[in-house]
Amino acid sequence: MSAVLDVRIRWRKAATALAGTALFAFGLAELYVPLAGYVEGEGPDLAALPAGWLAVLTVLLVGYGLAVAGCTSYPRTAAILAGACFTAQSFTPVLPEWPVVPLVALLAAAFGCVAVGGRAAPTVAAVAYFVSLGIENAMAGDSDWVFILFVGLAVLGPGYAVRMRRAQGARLVALAAEREAAARTDERLRVARELHDIVSHGVSVMVLQAGAAQAVLDSDAGQAHASLDAVQDVGREVVTELRRLLVILRGTEAAPEGLPSLRRIDPLTAGVRLAGGQVDVTVTGDLAAVPAAADVSGYRILQESLTNAARHAPGATVRVSIEVTGDALRLHVVDDGTGSARRSAGTGHGLTGIRERVELFGGTVSAGPRAQGGFEVRVELPFDADASAAGLIPTGVTG
């Protein structure tokens, strides 16, 4: 879009420069090669003008040409220059009634000033037009103000219409730029959230398993090997998730079965169990009826909740309740770990990610320590078609 606008601006400048040059050349031809008497025989004979007046008129011709050539690049300056030249010519033996050049230059400069000038441009154009023509009218002894007003409205009116259209176009371009910037920011946040969910869960489980292997390395080699095998399995799962995310970010469609799903949560619960905890899962309703975006978001929310439980309350019992109704998906994750440790640990990015996911669906979320100990997360994701579609558009895996 920017390149197209640059080309248009260059062509417009070239066109106005060519028009100014052509008008100057035409004026020179009228001045130095008079083919007929001035205004059909009325007025001075151009061929009989002294050299000094010819030089003055030539300078004024240069001013007219520059005003037309710069009417879009320097609109207010061009309008003032055209008006000044028009006024100055009113005090020469050849009034601006001289055919074509002076009036055309003044009208072109006034039109360009109104159409593409700044805030004060319409006022500058109107003053330059009416003042210069008023002085010329007085010097010529003519009082045809109706004609002057008619021509002024015929030129300044369309110029103002062009001005309004340009302003509307500029507003639309600015609005599109704001929307694009907001979309990019939203995209970065969604990708960051997805990466956090993938990496945080995998690394947390791997750290726990590596610590467990180190603790029993000398006393129970078999258990140490099992923990290290779990580290490898989780590592491979994380790599697979990251590759799937990269494929989607590159624009390749992901198969529905490749997306995370609440129907496949065994790897999530296994991580907590390997950390020494226990997970009890209760499912109510048909998980196959959950829309894809809500299914993915529910999986990520459950993943973050179980990751927090494994990280901050190792060895705790975690109860997971998944309920599918006709219009919503409800998740309830509660553990019996130490509440005080949970409040003081972590950065809060996981809970922020959960809230962001829920907001996309217009759902509700509550998370915090329980009075009787442990931590609780409650989430409700309504099945809204528009929100669900929006949740999958940016990356294909976030809700």
Protein architecture, described:
The chain is an alpha+beta fold and 399 residues long. The protein folds into 2 domains: 2-143, no CATH class; 191-392, Heat Shock Protein 90. It contains 12 helices and 5 strands. The chain has helices at 2-32, 51-69, 75-89, 101-116, 121-140, 145-215, 221-249, 266-274, 292-312, 339-344, 349-360, 385-392; strands at residues 278-284, 317-324, 328-335, 364-369, 375-382. A 5-stranded mixed beta sheet has the order 1-2-3-5-4. Helix 2 packs antiparallel against helix 3 (75-89), helix 6 (145-215) crosses helix 8 and helix 9 (292-312) runs antiparallel to helix 11. The longest helix has 71 residues, at 145-215.
